[in-house]
Amino acid sequence: AEAEADAANNTTNTTASLIRGGFWYSKFCTEERDALRSTISREELRSTTFSIKFWFQTKLLPDMKRIKGVVASGLDGPSFSDNMHFDLPSGTILGMSEADNRSPFFVNDDGSIIDIRTPHPTFSLHVFRRKDWGWEFRSQVYVVRSVDNDRTEQLWDNYASSLIIEKRKKGVPCTRGDVKYKRREVPDVEEIKEFLKW
Fold it and tell me: How many alpha carbons fall within 13 Å on the CB side of residue 120?
């Protein structure tokens, strides 16, 4: 009985060792680490198509919805572009409107922040990895998502379907634009509500 137990333990240990040290386990661990990365390589940036939206209503898209007394979200409206590309040889953005096409961009050394035109805390895009391993870049004005196989149908659904009206807490300064407002429409996602300044 003792010999059988030892044999079973040896088999279990050998199997666990092979799985832990094997090619597929190693590949799995690499992919899991990669999914937590908050930096993007220049090659990934160059070879990816993006969709860009405004967090909130803007005069640049006059057909966006308006909600009386609330800064309305731009997430359930049209994208500013679904064919945005970062062209590395020229250092400009392509696939945008005529006014914004060929805007220069800059990537910091580790690939965690992308600046369009000039570095500015409001417009600097911070790099995040989505749960589906796609990319998301967030600034205080824009949100940019990678497009997989030119499919944008459900790209924004998790944000657009969770929109709520949030009331500004007493004492929180209002820093967005010239008009002070007390309510805004945002995704009911804690990370996003904390990221977006009032």
Answer: 10
